[in-house]
Design goal:
By secondary structure, this protein is α+β, with helices and mostly antiparallel strands. It has helices at about 1-20, 25-35, 45-60, 70, 95-160, 160-170, 175-180, 230-240, 305-340, 340-355, 370-410, 415-430, 480-510, 520-540, 555-560, 560-580, 605-620, 645-660, and strands at about 75-80, 85, 90, 185-190, 195, 205-210, 215-225, 245-250, 255-260, 270-275, 280-290, 295-305, 435-440, 445-450, 455-465, 465-475, 545-550, 585-590, 595-600, 630-640, 665-670. The relative contact order is 0.06.
Amino acid sequence: MPGSRAVSLAGDRRRLNDASAGARPERDAERGWRRREQPRDQRAAGDGDREQQRGDQALLPAHVPPLSRRQLLQGTIGRRGDWLEFQGVKLSSFKFKLVAYFVLLSLVPLAATYWGFSTVAGAGESRQVTLRQEAGLHAALALYGERADRAEARAEQLARSRPLQRALERRNGRALRRIVADRPTLSVVGTGGLHAGTVPRLAARFPVDVVSGAHRLGEVVATIPLDAGLVGRLRRGAGFDSGDVLVLLEGSRILASMPPLRGRVAIPAGQSATVSVGGTRYRAFAAPALPRVPAARLAVLTRKAVIDAATTRTRDRLLAGLLVCLALVGVVAYLQGRAIVRNLRRFATAARGIAHGHLQERVPVRGRDEFAELGAALNDMAAQLEARLAELEAERGRVRDALARFGEALAATHDAKQLLGVVAATAVEATSARGSRIVLPDGTVVSSGDAECEGERLILPLTASGERFGTLELVGDSFSKEQRMNAASLAAHAVVALENARLHGMVERQALVDGLTGLANRRAASHALHAEAARAKRLETPLSVVLADLDGFKEVNDEHGHAVGDAVLRVFAEVLRDTLRESDLAGRWGGEEFLLLLPGADKEGAAQLAERVRVGLATRRIPSVPELRVTASFGVAEYAGETNTEQLVAAADDALYRAKRGGKDRVERAVRAAF
């Protein structure tokens, strides 16, 4: 999960800062030592010893006791003028031999190299991202063009169909609606205001004329809705990187995007620029306007932080290579100065290598004098620092892997129970706790490890947007600041995943249930109709369908208002729930029209049930308008193995219209010829 990856990187950065904090006093001591070498700042010989001892004490881990002045250096190393002095004996010019080679031959050219290459790397990374964005947009536009061609081809095929031409010639609106009913992206426009099908508010339109002989009868309009669904399909098909955001712009306003994003992107077509959207900086590239929709265009956004991170990685690799070169130059300087001050130069080079992070550097220990004692102390310090950094790196990798697995698990499921188990197990691993448990609001407990043992307890609430999911309890010997931060980050990710699971359940239910009546919506009813028809055909069992339509519903709305109309729909839904069997299904087919799916019932049985529903509705009263009497008409059709579901619904609809024409408030059965 992206969020967990960001938290892991932030934690790594904090740990690296903490690990390097001990090296800052040593670097400060080195800079102070160099300043004190200037001729105008003559110091006593003992000042160098005190600064070196303070740097060594700051560099060593807290559990390693610092060396005393007597242990570190029995003699006196100081400086008088430009000459290095050891116990009163002048050795040679330490400044002119070492500093001249090291600074003049290494620092200046390497710094210039680093500056030049880092500048080129930053510009190159931006150019690479722009080229990748441009290639992705070309692919997305090509996919859009293919979709447009297919849509126009479908429109042309429909325009050439004889049934459509006959319907337009006869101005048969009902036939037109049936023709485009299973073609949601097509609509038909005839002369004199005749229209069938719907056109989205913002869509690419591809009209095709319908011509019969020398007469133009109308046109078929193919549309491609410009929405988040289209953007998502183009993004997947064009192969954008996971971090890229493909947006659909109307002017500079974002109409739709994937992943979701809101705001404005003011950038000319065919150009790349850095923009800020929702408080986040992006590198954006915009394409020209879409064909047939001059107000809309595509653009791709890449987080500036991603580009900066790639540039930083390139600079870090360059810096690592330069540091290796710096170490080689240091070795050359060491060899050059060995003839002058062999023993002292060896220690200085080794100490400088450790200061620059080369913890594998060791001082050859020769003899049994004070230099050997100092060399052994430096080697021990470097070994302990190297071991400590290795431990920190291993711990960082373990926590990063645990959080990555946790994020993947959270993104892979919407099952709240499974999520709670993953959260409890990952919390133990990420914080090195003995055990954990999650206590839900209903008292249910999900645990991992030994959650009942004695020790320090860390309790974190799991709440989001006023919704309480319970509490996460961790128990262990103790929890460091970093472990507490890991636990808080994990809890935040867990809350987001649990909230997503809850919202997913709500959306899943809303997609299948009509919000006003509580019955199945058309999508759910249509799916059930196809499934029951297939089962009836396979098992050779009866299946009937009833279409019900409230009589005079428009007059109810006009006379009493839509609130009363909604109450009428809810009352009719209650009658259906009270009358139908457990195996039956009632769904709102559209407006005041309802579909009853009756597995195992033949036409006569379905007609009897419809009659009971009709009588039950006639006896009901609307609470807000007691004097209002509501009736309904019913059309009954039985499924035959040689028919399809569309024909079955059409037969029931024909019977329903005969009931309407016959005086309403009645039940009519479909005749065989209707199939």
